[in-house]
Structures are given as C-alpha cells and as structure tokens.
Amino acid sequence: MLFVNTLKYSLPLLLTLSILGCGDQTESDKRPVKVIHVDVSPLTYSTLRLSTELPGRITAFKEAEVRPQITGIVKSRLYQEGSYVQAGQVLFQIDDTSYQSAVNSEDAQLKKALTSEKNAKKEMLRYAQLVKKKLSSQQIYDEAESTYLQAKAEVAIRQAALNYANIELSYTKIKAPISGQAGFSEVSEGSLLTSSQSDYITTIIQTDNVYIDMQQSALAFYKIQQEFKKATEENPIVPVTITLEDGTIYNQTGQLEFTDTQTNGSTGTVALRAIIPNPDNSLLAGMYVRAHISMPEARDYIVVSQSIVVRSQSGQPSVFVVDEDNKVVKKSITLGSEVDNKWVVKEGLNAGEKVVINNLSKIKNGLTVIVDSVTKHTTETASKTNIENESSTINPDTNSKDLD
C-alpha cells in the first residue's frame, strides 16, 4: 500500500522534470554558433639560393705511396714522421756500396770503349787517305770503317749501361714524389727492401686542398641538372660548404669540380666531387661530412612556416587560406626544400594569399571566421640568407633517399 502511494506522487514529479529538461535542450539548440577568431599572414616571395645536402667523404688532393725501386738494405731514415716534406726530399737511404761499384765498373768500360773508338777512327781515316792515293785497296778501307762503326756502337752501349747504373745508384736515395705530410715509416734501419715489393714504406698526403666525394641518386641529379639549365649564367660556379659530424660548420667554401659521366649500375647513383681549401689541415682524409651544394642562382620562392602546415592521414600537406569573404579554404600544396623551420612551397599557393597562422585545430574547410589581425609572414630570415640548407630530398613528400 505504501509503494502504491509513493508511485502515485512520484509520477507527476517525473513528468514535470522531463518537460523542464526538454525545454532546456530546446533553448541550447537555439544558441548561435561560436565564431572562431584567427590571425592571417599574406604570402610574399623570398629570394633564396637553395642547396642540396649530401653525405660526403674527405679525400686527399694528392696521395702517394712510397715504394723502393731497387733491392737493398735500409741504411737510414732521413725524415721526421708526420712532418711536411718537399717533393724531391730524401726520405730513406739504401746502402749504395754495390750500386756505386757497378757505376765505377761501367765507367771504366765506357772509357775503354772510347779508346777503342778513337783508335778505330784514326785507322779508318788513315786508310781513307791511302785509298785516295791508290796505295791501299778499297776492301781494307771498308774493313777499317766497319771496325770504327762497331767501336762507336760499343761506346753507345757502354754509355747506356753507365746511365742505367747511375739511375740505380740514384734510387738508393728514396725521395718524396710530391710535397705533403709524410706518414709513419713502415721500415727501420737494416730492413731489406726489394724492387718488386707491393708493400709501401711510407705515404705522403697533400691536403692544402681536399676533395669531397659524394653520391647522388640519378633521379635527383637529373632534377638538379634541370635547375642548372635554367640558370642565367652560362657556366655558373657552384659553391659547396660542409658541416662536420658534430654539426660544426666548416669556415671555408669550395666549389663543385666534377660529376661522373655515367650512373653506377648497382646503386643507381652518380659520383660528384668538390674541392675545398684546407689551409690548417683540419680536414683529414677519410672524414665523413655533410656537403651542401648550392643551386646555380638565387630565385624567388614562397616560403611558409612548418607550424602552419597540416597533413592528412595519408601525409598530404595542406594549409588553410582565408578568402575575401572570410571563408576558410583548405589548399593542398607541394613542398620543396626545408629552410630552417620553414618549407619552400613548389605548388599550391600564390603570393598575396592569406594563410591562417593560429587556431588551426578549430577550423575546417568552408568555415566563416573573423580575422583579428593581418601580420607579415615570417620570411625575413630566409630572404636575407644567400645559401640555405635543403633537406636530404628535393621533395619531402617523396622517397627520403632521393639524394642519398
């Protein structure tokens, strides 16, 4: 009985609350939609000279492996390991006793041959006079002439033998073929050297200038070639700068020196070589660096901050633009080089368009917004910089190994 009475009084109350609730929902549905406020920035062109970043390896400008040209015992080492040596400087002295003896012997043989030649010449001239006076036969003169010519040939043979002996004697002084930094000595006094040995006894590296050897994918290289074809200069100099492994920027600027004429069939890459000054010998052969190859000339580009670029689930980049009616338009774009914290836009945007720079998570395509302020897009850093770094790809939306 108590339960029935409770239910009797509760039903009117529940109905009243339900009606009131429905009334509140209707009121909330009639509230105006909240308008979103945004700031925009008009796009302008920035003048940039872009660059491509590639991994590179330092190679010595000149490198010589010093080997003996004769067989002998090392008598002494005449240079200090690690020091700078001049071309022609004596590095090692080989025991020259036997080679000097050979020179003396050949010299004596030459003198003997010269004496024989002199006598044969006199004999020939004497018979020549006798033949003129008809006091000797032509046959005797011919034999004398033949003897003289043989003696003359013997002199030439002995002279050549003496020259060869002198050359071998000179090889007992092992000299530096080029100027540069001499490396460790691989032999010591008393070591036996042979003329046919494959092991070098020291190395000399010339590093006043060094090479930077790089590999570029054939496709990316083709794109760079197209950029160079558009250059206003006929043969533009291509500056190259490098960054060390720890991020330190090297204080010298080089230039692109050489590109290979064919693609490596196994890797699909093209070899490039740059040359860069190394006055302090701080760049050592074998070091790995990041090389920045500048494009042929500065051009005008549209640059946007990375913070205003949004991406779809598939990774397609886009930005929001406000039109003349204050409506938001979502525009797909094609990104190019990375410049500091900005992207170069290759396609999709034009100068003068107003891009949204805040409240990006609250807006969508077709939404009407209120523009609070119009600020100049932050491109001063890019426009004042002659050479900017490009990411390791020409287009960040394509395969990231394009330039590697």
From TrEMBL:
Region (Disordered): 381-404
Gene3D superfamilies on file: 2.40.30.170, 2.40.420.20, 2.40.50.100, Helix hairpin bin
Residue intervals passing through the bilayer: none
Sequence ranges of Polar residues compositional bias: 381-398
Primary localization class, coarse: membrane
Compartmental location: Cell inner membrane
Multidrug resistance protein MdtA-like beta-barrel domain span: 210-294
Topology within the bilayer: Lipid-anchor
Domain Multidrug resistance protein MdtA-like barrel-sandwich hybrid: 63-204
Highest taxon above the source species: Bacteria
UniProt domain Multidrug resistance protein MdtA-like C-terminal permuted SH3: residue ranges: 302-360
Record Pfam families: Beta-barrel_RND, BSH_RND, HH_MFP_RND, RND-MFP_C
InterPro entries referenced in this protein's UniProt entry, alphabetically: MdtA-like_b-barrel (IPR058626), MdtA-like_BSH (IPR058625), MdtA-like_C (IPR058627), MdtA-like_HH (IPR058624), RND_pump_MFP (IPR006143)
Domain Multidrug resistance protein MdtA-like alpha-helical hairpin: 104-172
Family: Belongs to the membrane fusion protein (MFP) (TC 8.A.1) family.
Protein name per its UniProtKB record: Efflux RND transporter periplasmic adaptor subunit
Protein species of origin: Psychromonas arctica
